[in-house]
Amino acid sequence: MQMRIAVEGCMHGDLDNVYATLLHLQEVQNIKIDLLLCCGDFQAVRNEKDLESLNVPPKFRSMNSFWKYYSGEKVAPFPTIFIGGNHEASNYLWELYYGGWAAPQIYFLGFAGVIKFGNIRIGGLSGIYKSHHYNMGHYEKLPYSEQDIRSIYHVREYDVHKLLQIEEPIDIFLSHDWPVGITACGDLKALLRQKPFFEQEIQEGTLGSKPAAELLGKLRPSYWFSAHLHCKFAALVQHEKDGHSTKFLALDKCLPGRNFLQVIEIESGPGPHELQLDEEWLAITRKYNAVFPLTIKNANYNSVHLGTEQCLQFVRNKLQTRGSKPFEFVQTAPCYKPSQPVADGVFHGFYKNPQTEALLQFLELEYLLNKMPESRKPAANLAPLISGCSFDYLGEDIPIDDIDDTEDSKEVDPEYAQEG
Amino acid sequence: MDESEKRKERLNAMRMEASQSGDYNEAVGYGGLTNPLTDVPSGNVESYAMPRPRFDYYTDPMAAFSANKRSNNQPHVSPQVSQQCYTRATNPQSPICTPRGNYSVDQRSQGVHHTFNPLGNPGQNSPFGIPQRGSPSAWNNSFDTPKNYLPPNSSMGGNFASPGIQRGGRPGFHYGQGSGQPGSGYGGSPYQGSGYRGNPYQDSGHRGSPSQGSGHRGSPYQHSGNRGSPYQGSGQGRSQWRGNSSSPFSFRGGRRGGRGSHGGTSGESRPDLYYSKSMVEDPWKELKPVIWKAFPEKPWLPHSISAKKAKFPDAPVKSISQQSLAECLAASFNEAASSEAATDGSGT
Nearest by CB to A229, which of B96, B293, B347? Predict the structure, then answer.
């Protein structure tokens, strides 16, 4: 049996169009798609309040189409798994830090996570890498400041550290930004013809994510998919260690004429397939949750007292009792009502997600997500740091509404040019 | 005024010359004078026998673009194609991979074990055969078909009823949503009592499990009852592409669903514009494996590209030995900061 998995680049809340394209593809190719993977910028915006946690310029803040799937007006025609990027309803994704259903049929992999679909093991790392936040904890809390809203999706070492503990093989891995150095393993000239302004960053070794590159070398998945740079780029990586290879593919965002979708086939057991919690990942989660860093300080791994094998056995026993099905979707925030604008202050934007609570209860772990440590004053603590740095937060804030560049890809890329 | 007269005379002369050469009409017809900004006289358009189709570009900018896109696309396939058969296609370029089956690290020593197979010849070259991990069943039994969907009846947070969830339900895959679903109970909402009305995937056929390989589904793109949706209507008009102010699809900034169709043609009304055959072709077929070095000692670029870089003189670097400690720190900081700013620059 073969499983057909569709992969999409940046979603940007455009679920309607992506699903419609896939339905069309099914008909034209006379095939059935079993699963859709999305590589970030999903924009799981449930209502107007969520837009306040979405890092896009105000004029581009629009509901797009995820809310229909959250509210139940529509149901995804394909099981969908996604990671976060740098344009997200970060308040909602934080609710589901450990992963969970963002909507029926639509599963968020978590800030870092591994899940199984049938016999396919899928891992992912949400966000993008920025060195200045990498060694900090997840200090951001609602309501997000202007700085928080841009840092909350920056990859943290803690999440990468957990992923690096994985020993069992991964079939597919998702990251929003590309592993740094990946451009050396594909048709670089073609890439530079399409995106000539990448040259300097490639030359300097700064195009992409260092932790993603580290994970690629460690996990050596069969496939690695990314997005973020709004272009299609394939690479073929051979790992020195064992000769195993990884097929890398970055994809574009959903626009007419753009390479935003790819269908691959993977050998699998007979379907239909279901999503299952991953035993090893749950064990890693259990092991490291006690040092979950919720201030600007990184985790203190010396305080990890649980052994890996001990956690594995614990999770194995639990899963045998309960089964490996993820916890059920539950709406938390109110649904968007186009006819009824929500007045400011009516609801807050952060909820204890019952899925997260259930998972932590299952793992016998403490719920930490909305704890506000006394020492946590991120804006105040970081002010000197941030004001002292000249890194360009706004550099990530590329207007995503770049429909006009469809004809101009050979010219200076407007997405980049607009950054200044 | 004099210049205008001279220009007219010059253009008349040019036109006469072109007519006498015998290829005037051909040149115009094939766009030899296609750039009106440079070639059309500003004061006397009427006297210039520009063919009308070229001028359509202004009133319908996407006329040229869409036509071009269509010509580049694969032949349009009618959405009436039945999905009843999920037999393997015979696209020889579709990528295929064998998963790692049981997760034994030892298997890695067997080398690259995912190979590309034509869709019509599945499973070959797989050293592992068909993995038998887990007990496959329906995609998460917690999922329900839309007919059992009961949206929440409250608008505030808290413990809502779980939509789309039914213990032991048979999810299958939903190819579009059926119409006439139960009312949602959104007080005052346009969805009240309408269920999934207006779903652009409005399904005329069954939506049973495709694994059953039976049943015919009508066009999934039929539109009905969109109650003012931006996707209302056919969306076929070429001038609607960009969603400019004259477009009926212009809803940027509007409250209803945002700009979900990219300012004009949605994938629901014209999925063929979004679809490309390359989506099912092997993107790695031309590539050779490259040994992975995540952090090469020197940033890697091909010689041809590196050579180009050398054309740009490096900024003069002040000797560190001549700098004070403060200057050293400032220089280090600026270097790090500019590096990060550059890194910020590429993505979205």
Answer: B347
A277 within a domain of the structure (yes/no) = yes
Mean pLDDT of A229-250: 95
pLDDT for A371 equals 64
> Are the Cβ atoms of B109 and A242 closer than 8 angstroms?
yes
> Domain range spanning residue A408?
2-412
Best mean pLDDT range from A298-312, A389-403, B309-323: A298-312
Task: Quote the minimal CA–CA distance from B29 to chain A in Å.
Answer: 23
CB A296, CB A154: distance < 8 Å: no
Q: How far is B55 from chain A (nearest CA, A)?
A: 19
Q: Which residues in B lie closer than 8 A to residue A236 (C-beta atoms)?
A: 284, 287-290
- Two tokens at B159? 């413990």
Distances, alpha carbon A104 to alpha carbons A204, A335, A355, A378, B303, in Å: 43, 14, 13, 34, 50
State mean pLDDT over B160-169. Answer: 33
What pTM value is reported for the model? 0.63
Q: Please check whether residue A420 lies inside any domain of the structure.
A: no
Whichever domain contains A306, its CATH number is 3.60.21.10
| pLDDT, tens digit, 9 for 90 and up, residues B284-327 | 999 999 999 876 555 445 555 555 544 444 444 343 344 445 55
Reported as type and span, the H/E element at residue A265 is strand A261-267
CB contact under 8 A, B85 and A16: no
Q: Which residues of B touch A59 (CB under 8 A)?
A: 253
Residues of B in contact with A24 (CB under 8 A): 79, 220-221, 267, 271-272, 274-275
pLDDT (tens digit per residue) in A404-418: 233 223 222 333 333
Residue A112 reports pLDDT greater than 90: yes
- For residue A380, pLDDT beyond 50: no
Query: Side chain identity at A189, as an amino acid letter?
Result: K
Residue B334 distance to chain A (closest CA, Å): 8
In terms of DSSP bridges, do strands A233-238 and A172-175 run parallel, antiparallel, or are they unpaired?
A: unpaired
According to the model, what pLDDT value does residue A370 have?
Answer: 77
Structural domains counted in chain A: 1
Query: Which pair of tokens denotes residue B74?
Result: 């694969």
What ipTM is given for this predicted complex? 0.88
Nearest-CA distance B11 → chain A (Å):
32
Q: Which of B97, B101, B136 sits opposite A264 (nearest CB)?
A: B97
CA B201 from chain centre, in angstroms, equals 18
B137 CB-contact burial (10 Å; exposed 0-12 / middle 13-18 / buried 19+): middle
**Closest CB from B138, B294, B306 relative to A216:** B294
Q: Given an 8 Å threshold on Cβ–Cβ distance, is B114 in contact with A222? A: yes
Tell me what pLDDT residue B215 has: 33
Rounded to whole angstroms, the Cα distance separating A89 from A67 reads 11
In a domain? residue A418: no
Amino acid at B103: Y
Q: What is the DSSP string of A359-413?
A: HHHHTT----TT---TT--HHHHHHHHHHH----GGGG---S--GGGGG-TTS--
| Candidates B119, B136, B263; nearest CB to A274 | B136
The SS3 of residue A179 is: strand
Q: Is residue A419 one of the residues assigned to a domain?
A: no
Q: If 0-12 CB within 10 Å is exposed, 13-18 middle and 19+ buried, where does residue A190 land?
A: middle
A79 contacts B108? CB cut-off 8 A: no
Set of chain B residues whose Cβ sits within 8 Å of the Cβ of A407: 65
Q: How confident is the prediction for chain A on average, in pLDDT?
A: 88
How would you classify the pairing of strands A275-277 and A172-175?
A: unpaired
Task: Please judge whether A20 and B111 are an interchain contact, meaning their C-beta atoms are less than 8 angstroms apart.
Answer: no
pLDDT, tens digit, for every residue of B107-141? Answer: 443 333 343 333 333 333 332 223 333 333 334 33
Residue A264 CB contacts under 8 Å (≥ 6 apart), including other chains: A4, A5, A7, A223, B94, B95, B96, B97
The DSSP string of A95-130 is HTTT-EEEETTEEE--SEEEEEETTEEEEEE-SB--
